[in-house]
Protein backbone atom coordinates (compact mmCIF):
# COMPACT_ATOMS: atom_id res chain seq x y z
CA UNK A 1 0.00 0.00 0.00
CA UNK A 2 2.64 2.47 1.03
CA UNK A 3 4.83 1.41 -1.88
CA UNK A 4 2.05 2.14 -4.39
CA UNK A 5 1.41 5.59 -2.98
CA UNK A 6 5.09 6.51 -2.86
CA UNK A 7 5.62 5.30 -6.42
CA UNK A 8 2.83 7.55 -7.64
CA UNK A 9 4.21 10.54 -5.82
CA UNK A 10 7.61 10.00 -7.39
CA UNK A 11 6.11 9.74 -10.86
CA UNK A 12 3.97 12.81 -10.33
CA UNK A 13 7.06 14.78 -9.36
CA UNK A 14 8.59 14.41 -12.84
CA UNK A 15 6.63 17.34 -14.34
CA UNK A 16 7.92 20.86 -15.00
CA UNK A 17 10.85 22.22 -13.05
CA UNK A 18 8.92 24.54 -10.72
CA UNK A 19 6.14 22.02 -10.20
CA UNK A 20 8.66 19.25 -9.71
CA UNK A 21 10.58 21.23 -7.12
CA UNK A 22 7.37 22.03 -5.27
CA UNK A 23 6.34 18.41 -5.18
CA UNK A 24 9.80 17.32 -4.15
CA UNK A 25 9.48 19.68 -1.20
CA UNK A 26 6.18 18.03 -0.32
CA UNK A 27 7.76 14.61 -0.61
CA UNK A 28 10.52 15.72 1.71
CA UNK A 29 7.95 16.54 4.36
CA UNK A 30 6.22 13.22 3.70
CA UNK A 31 9.43 11.28 4.13
CA UNK A 32 10.23 13.00 7.41
CA UNK A 33 6.73 12.48 8.75
CA UNK A 34 6.11 8.94 7.50
CA UNK A 35 7.72 6.06 9.32
CA UNK A 36 9.87 3.61 7.42
CA UNK A 37 8.79 -0.01 7.43
CA UNK A 38 11.60 -0.74 9.86
CA UNK A 39 10.53 2.00 12.27
CA UNK A 40 6.80 2.58 12.66
CA UNK A 41 6.85 4.48 15.93
CA UNK A 42 6.06 1.39 17.98
CA UNK A 43 5.74 3.40 21.18
CA UNK A 44 2.48 5.11 20.20
CA UNK A 45 0.40 1.97 19.53
CA UNK A 46 1.69 0.21 22.64
CA UNK A 47 0.94 3.28 24.76
CA UNK A 48 -2.61 3.39 23.45
CA UNK A 49 -2.90 -0.37 23.91
CA UNK A 50 -2.04 0.03 27.60
CA UNK A 51 -4.48 2.93 28.12
CA UNK A 52 -7.41 1.39 26.27
CA UNK A 53 -6.82 -2.09 27.65
CA UNK A 54 -6.74 -0.70 31.19
CA UNK A 55 -9.99 1.22 30.65
CA UNK A 56 -11.80 -1.80 29.20
CA UNK A 57 -10.67 -4.34 31.76
CA UNK A 58 -11.12 -1.97 34.72
CA UNK A 59 -14.75 -1.45 33.73
CA UNK A 60 -15.47 -5.14 33.17
CA UNK A 61 -13.76 -6.13 36.42
CA UNK A 62 -15.62 -3.48 38.42
CA UNK A 63 -18.98 -4.63 37.03
CA UNK A 64 -18.11 -8.29 37.63
CA UNK A 65 -17.17 -7.60 41.27
CA UNK A 66 -20.02 -5.21 42.08
CA UNK A 67 -22.66 -7.28 40.24
CA UNK A 68 -25.14 -4.40 39.82
CA UNK A 69 -28.86 -4.87 39.21
CA UNK A 70 -30.19 -5.03 35.64
CA UNK A 71 -30.84 -1.29 35.14
CA UNK A 72 -27.42 -0.32 36.45
CA UNK A 73 -25.83 -3.12 34.44
CA UNK A 74 -27.25 -1.68 31.22
CA UNK A 75 -26.18 1.82 32.22
CA UNK A 76 -22.65 0.55 32.87
CA UNK A 77 -22.53 -0.72 29.29
CA UNK A 78 -22.54 2.86 27.96
CA UNK A 79 -18.99 3.90 28.96
CA UNK A 80 -17.70 0.44 28.00
CA UNK A 81 -19.18 0.91 24.54
CA UNK A 82 -17.15 4.09 24.08
CA UNK A 83 -13.84 2.43 24.99
CA UNK A 84 -14.76 -0.58 22.84
CA UNK A 85 -15.33 1.77 19.88
CA UNK A 86 -12.11 3.68 20.52
CA UNK A 87 -10.22 0.41 20.84
CA UNK A 88 -11.63 -0.88 17.56
CA UNK A 89 -10.66 2.31 15.73
CA UNK A 90 -7.23 2.40 17.35
CA UNK A 91 -5.88 -1.01 18.44
CA UNK A 92 -7.44 -3.17 15.71
CA UNK A 93 -6.54 -0.57 13.09
CA UNK A 94 -2.94 -0.41 14.29
CA UNK A 95 -2.77 -4.21 14.24
CA UNK A 96 -4.09 -4.18 10.68
CA UNK A 97 -1.13 -2.02 9.67
CA UNK A 98 1.31 -4.17 11.69
CA UNK A 99 2.17 -1.17 13.84
CA UNK A 100 2.78 -3.27 16.94
CA UNK A 101 5.28 -5.48 15.16
CA UNK A 102 6.14 -6.87 11.75
CA UNK A 103 5.35 -10.28 13.18
CA UNK A 104 1.75 -11.46 13.40
CA UNK A 105 1.54 -12.60 17.02
CA UNK A 106 2.16 -9.23 18.77
CA UNK A 107 -0.65 -7.67 16.72
CA UNK A 108 -2.99 -10.54 17.63
CA UNK A 109 -1.93 -10.31 21.28
CA UNK A 110 -2.51 -6.56 21.42
CA UNK A 111 -5.98 -6.77 19.88
CA UNK A 112 -7.31 -9.76 21.79
CA UNK A 113 -6.12 -8.44 25.16
CA UNK A 114 -7.05 -4.75 24.85
CA UNK A 115 -10.38 -5.10 22.98
CA UNK A 116 -11.67 -8.67 23.49
CA UNK A 117 -14.50 -8.42 20.96
CA UNK A 118 -13.82 -11.58 18.99
CA UNK A 119 -12.00 -10.04 16.03
CA UNK A 120 -10.07 -12.33 13.69
CA UNK A 121 -7.00 -10.10 13.37
CA UNK A 122 -5.21 -12.03 10.64
CA UNK A 123 -8.34 -11.96 8.45
CA UNK A 124 -9.08 -8.30 9.19
CA UNK A 125 -5.52 -7.36 8.25
CA UNK A 126 -5.96 -8.86 4.79
CA UNK A 127 -9.33 -7.13 4.29
CA UNK A 128 -7.87 -3.83 5.34
CA UNK A 129 -4.97 -4.25 2.95
CA UNK A 130 -7.47 -4.60 0.11
CA UNK A 131 -9.38 -1.57 1.39
CA UNK A 132 -6.26 0.60 1.16
CA UNK A 133 -5.35 -0.82 -2.22
CA UNK A 134 -8.87 -0.52 -3.67
CA UNK A 135 -10.62 2.04 -1.50
CA UNK A 136 -14.36 2.14 -2.31
CA UNK A 137 -13.83 0.26 -5.59
CA UNK A 138 -16.79 -2.02 -6.22
CA UNK A 139 -16.71 -5.00 -5.72
CA UNK A 140 -13.11 -5.25 -4.52
CA UNK A 141 -13.56 -3.33 -1.26
CA UNK A 142 -15.76 -5.45 1.04
CA UNK A 143 -17.54 -2.36 2.39
CA UNK A 144 -19.05 -1.74 -1.06
CA UNK A 145 -20.72 -5.18 -1.28
CA UNK A 146 -23.34 -4.71 1.43
CA UNK A 147 -26.79 -5.39 -0.03
CA UNK A 148 -28.92 -4.56 3.03
CA UNK A 149 -27.64 -0.97 3.18
CA UNK A 150 -26.80 0.24 -0.33
CA UNK A 151 -23.50 2.09 0.05
CA UNK A 152 -22.37 1.96 -3.57
CA UNK A 153 -24.21 2.55 -6.87
CA UNK A 154 -22.84 -0.80 -8.06
CA UNK A 155 -25.30 -2.60 -5.77
CA UNK A 156 -28.72 -3.28 -7.29
CA UNK A 157 -31.22 -0.82 -5.85
CA UNK A 158 -34.22 -2.46 -4.17
CA UNK A 159 -37.48 -0.93 -2.86
CA UNK A 160 -36.35 -1.38 0.77
CA UNK A 161 -33.37 0.90 0.13
CA UNK A 162 -35.73 3.89 -0.04
CA UNK A 163 -35.83 3.70 3.75
CA UNK A 164 -32.19 2.88 4.44
CA UNK A 165 -31.41 6.36 5.76
CA UNK A 166 -33.78 5.46 8.62
CA UNK A 167 -32.91 1.83 9.35
CA UNK A 168 -29.15 1.84 8.67
CA UNK A 169 -28.37 3.25 12.12
CA UNK A 170 -30.06 0.28 13.78
CA UNK A 171 -28.16 -2.15 11.58
CA UNK A 172 -24.85 -0.50 12.45
CA UNK A 173 -25.35 -1.91 15.94
CA UNK A 174 -25.10 -5.39 14.45
CA UNK A 175 -21.94 -4.77 12.46
CA UNK A 176 -20.34 -7.44 14.65
CA UNK A 177 -22.76 -10.00 13.16
CA UNK A 178 -21.61 -9.07 9.67
CA UNK A 179 -17.99 -9.24 10.82
CA UNK A 180 -18.50 -12.75 12.21
CA UNK A 181 -20.15 -13.82 8.96
CA UNK A 182 -17.20 -12.37 7.05
CA UNK A 183 -14.79 -14.36 9.22
CA UNK A 184 -16.63 -17.63 8.70
CA UNK A 185 -16.89 -17.04 4.94
CA UNK A 186 -13.17 -16.35 4.78
CA UNK A 187 -12.34 -19.52 6.71
CA UNK A 188 -14.57 -21.58 4.40
CA UNK A 189 -13.74 -19.99 1.04
CA UNK A 190 -10.65 -17.82 1.48
CA UNK A 191 -12.40 -15.00 -0.38
CA UNK A 192 -9.97 -12.08 -0.25
CA UNK A 193 -9.97 -10.57 -3.74
CA UNK A 194 -6.55 -9.89 -5.18
CA UNK A 195 -4.49 -11.40 -2.35
CA UNK A 196 -2.95 -14.80 -1.81
CA UNK A 197 -4.50 -16.47 1.23
CA UNK A 198 -3.38 -19.44 3.35
CA UNK A 199 -4.89 -22.90 2.70
CA UNK A 200 -8.09 -23.94 4.48
CA UNK A 201 -6.40 -25.85 7.32
CA UNK A 202 -4.21 -22.85 8.15
CA UNK A 203 -7.17 -20.43 8.04
CA UNK A 204 -9.23 -22.69 10.29
CA UNK A 205 -6.35 -23.08 12.75
CA UNK A 206 -5.79 -19.32 12.89
CA UNK A 207 -9.49 -18.65 13.49
CA UNK A 208 -9.82 -21.29 16.22
CA UNK A 209 -6.68 -20.04 17.97
CA UNK A 210 -7.84 -16.42 18.02
CA UNK A 211 -11.33 -17.41 19.22
CA UNK A 212 -9.85 -19.53 22.00
CA UNK A 213 -7.57 -16.66 23.00
CA UNK A 214 -10.55 -14.27 23.06
CA UNK A 215 -12.63 -16.69 25.17
CA UNK A 216 -9.76 -17.09 27.62
CA UNK A 217 -9.55 -13.32 28.10
CA UNK A 218 -13.26 -12.67 28.78
CA UNK A 219 -14.28 -15.89 30.55
CA UNK A 220 -13.15 -14.77 34.06
CA UNK A 221 -15.65 -11.90 33.94
CA UNK A 222 -18.43 -14.27 32.95
CA UNK A 223 -17.55 -16.58 35.83
CA UNK A 224 -17.56 -13.72 38.34
CA UNK A 225 -20.73 -12.00 37.17
CA UNK A 226 -22.60 -14.98 35.83
CA UNK A 227 -22.79 -16.01 32.15
CA UNK A 228 -26.26 -14.53 31.52
CA UNK A 229 -25.67 -11.13 33.07
CA UNK A 230 -22.21 -10.78 31.59
CA UNK A 231 -23.46 -11.78 28.12
CA UNK A 232 -26.13 -9.07 28.29
CA UNK A 233 -23.69 -6.45 29.56
CA UNK A 234 -21.08 -7.41 26.97
CA UNK A 235 -23.42 -7.55 23.97
CA UNK A 236 -25.11 -4.24 24.78
CA UNK A 237 -21.70 -2.56 25.08
CA UNK A 238 -20.47 -4.26 21.89
CA UNK A 239 -23.57 -3.25 19.91
CA UNK A 240 -23.49 0.38 21.07
CA UNK A 241 -19.78 0.50 20.37
CA UNK A 242 -20.39 -0.92 16.90
CA UNK A 243 -22.70 2.02 16.13
CA UNK A 244 -20.08 4.53 17.24
CA UNK A 245 -17.22 2.88 15.34
CA UNK A 246 -19.35 2.34 12.23
CA UNK A 247 -20.36 5.99 12.06
CA UNK A 248 -16.76 7.17 12.30
CA UNK A 249 -15.76 4.83 9.48
CA UNK A 250 -18.67 5.31 7.08
CA UNK A 251 -18.59 9.12 7.16
CA UNK A 252 -15.04 8.90 5.81
CA UNK A 253 -16.07 7.14 2.59
CA UNK A 254 -19.85 7.15 2.07
CA UNK A 255 -20.69 10.81 2.06
CA UNK A 256 -21.81 13.72 -0.07
CA UNK A 257 -19.20 15.01 -2.48
CA UNK A 258 -17.38 11.67 -2.73
CA UNK A 259 -17.13 9.46 -5.80
CA UNK A 260 -18.00 5.75 -5.80
CA UNK A 261 -15.63 4.14 -8.37
CA UNK A 262 -16.11 0.75 -9.96
CA UNK A 263 -12.59 0.23 -11.26
CA UNK A 264 -9.08 0.26 -9.86
CA UNK A 265 -7.30 3.57 -10.46
CA UNK A 266 -4.08 3.68 -12.46
CA UNK A 267 -0.96 4.28 -10.32
CA UNK A 268 -0.60 7.80 -11.73
CA UNK A 269 -4.15 8.61 -10.54
CA UNK A 270 -3.82 7.03 -7.11
CA UNK A 271 -3.69 10.16 -4.98
CA UNK A 272 -6.50 11.75 -6.99
CA UNK A 273 -8.58 8.62 -6.34
CA UNK A 274 -8.03 9.00 -2.60
CA UNK A 275 -9.08 12.66 -2.66
CA UNK A 276 -12.22 11.69 -4.56
CA UNK A 277 -13.23 8.89 -2.17
CA UNK A 278 -12.17 10.08 1.30
CA UNK A 279 -13.53 12.68 3.72
CA UNK A 280 -12.10 14.09 6.95
CA UNK A 281 -13.73 15.78 9.94
CA UNK A 282 -12.88 17.59 13.19
CA UNK A 283 -9.26 17.95 12.09
CA UNK A 284 -8.50 20.53 14.79
CA UNK A 285 -9.64 18.46 17.77
CA UNK A 286 -7.00 16.49 19.69
CA UNK A 287 -9.55 14.59 21.89
CA UNK A 288 -11.57 13.59 18.84
CA UNK A 289 -8.42 12.47 17.04
CA UNK A 290 -7.54 10.17 19.94
CA UNK A 291 -11.07 8.83 20.41
CA UNK A 292 -11.34 7.95 16.71
CA UNK A 293 -7.87 6.53 16.23
CA UNK A 294 -6.89 9.36 13.88
CA UNK A 295 -9.88 8.84 11.56
CA UNK A 296 -10.49 12.58 11.81
CA UNK A 297 -7.64 12.87 9.29
CA UNK A 298 -8.89 10.05 7.08
CA UNK A 299 -7.36 11.33 3.85
CA UNK A 300 -3.97 11.89 5.48
CA UNK A 301 -4.09 8.34 6.78
CA UNK A 302 -4.86 6.89 3.34
CA UNK A 303 -2.05 8.86 1.75
CA UNK A 304 0.43 7.74 4.44
CA UNK A 305 -1.07 4.66 6.15
CA UNK A 306 1.77 4.01 8.61
CA UNK A 307 2.19 7.61 9.77
CA UNK A 308 1.64 7.83 13.55
CA UNK A 309 -1.43 9.67 14.76
CA UNK A 310 0.44 12.60 16.26
CA UNK A 311 1.86 13.42 12.81
CA UNK A 312 -1.51 13.47 11.02
CA UNK A 313 -2.25 17.19 11.61
CA UNK A 314 1.05 18.20 10.00
CA UNK A 315 0.45 15.82 7.10
CA UNK A 316 -3.00 17.39 6.75
CA UNK A 317 -1.58 20.89 6.25
CA UNK A 318 1.33 19.84 4.02
CA UNK A 319 1.05 16.66 1.97
CA UNK A 320 -2.76 16.54 1.92
CA UNK A 321 -3.09 20.20 0.95
CA UNK A 322 -0.62 19.79 -1.93
CA UNK A 323 -2.21 16.56 -3.20
CA UNK A 324 -5.70 18.09 -3.08
CA UNK A 325 -4.51 21.15 -4.99
CA UNK A 326 -2.84 18.98 -7.63
CA UNK A 327 -5.95 16.81 -8.03
CA UNK A 328 -8.22 19.73 -8.93
CA UNK A 329 -10.94 18.19 -6.75
CA UNK A 330 -12.54 19.61 -3.59
CA UNK A 331 -11.32 18.25 -0.29
CA UNK A 332 -14.42 17.01 1.47
CA UNK A 333 -13.88 18.01 5.09
CA UNK A 334 -16.51 18.51 7.79
CA UNK A 335 -16.05 20.77 10.80
CA UNK A 336 -17.58 18.23 13.20
CA UNK A 337 -18.50 14.56 13.38
CA UNK A 338 -22.14 15.64 13.71
CA UNK A 339 -22.09 17.53 10.40
CA UNK A 340 -20.34 14.59 8.72
CA UNK A 341 -23.00 12.21 10.09
CA UNK A 342 -25.85 14.41 8.84
CA UNK A 343 -24.22 14.46 5.41
CA UNK A 344 -23.87 10.67 5.52
CA UNK A 345 -27.61 10.47 6.25
CA UNK A 346 -28.30 12.50 3.11
CA UNK A 347 -25.95 10.31 1.05
CA UNK A 348 -27.74 7.15 2.24
CA UNK A 349 -31.03 8.72 1.22
CA UNK A 350 -29.60 9.63 -2.19
CA UNK A 351 -28.30 6.08 -2.76
CA UNK A 352 -31.67 4.67 -1.73
CA UNK A 353 -33.62 6.81 -4.20
CA UNK A 354 -31.35 6.99 -7.26
CA UNK A 355 -28.73 4.99 -9.09
CA UNK A 356 -25.98 7.46 -8.37
CA UNK A 357 -23.99 9.68 -10.69
CA UNK A 358 -21.41 12.46 -10.23
CA UNK A 359 -21.21 13.61 -6.62
CA UNK A 360 -23.07 16.74 -5.62
CA UNK A 361 -21.33 18.72 -2.89
CA UNK A 362 -23.99 20.02 -0.52
CA UNK A 363 -22.24 19.56 2.82
CA UNK A 364 -19.51 21.82 4.24
CA UNK A 365 -16.25 21.27 2.37
CA UNK A 366 -12.83 22.82 2.10
CA UNK A 367 -11.37 23.33 -1.34
UniProtKB/TrEMBL annotation:
Signal peptide: none annotated. The keyword Transcription does not apply. This is Fatty acid desaturase domain-containing protein. The keyword Ion transport does not apply. The chain crosses the membrane at residues 72-92, 166-187, 230-251. Residues 72-333 form the Fatty acid desaturase domain. Keywords: Membrane, Transmembrane, Transmembrane helix. It comes from Kineosporia mesophila.
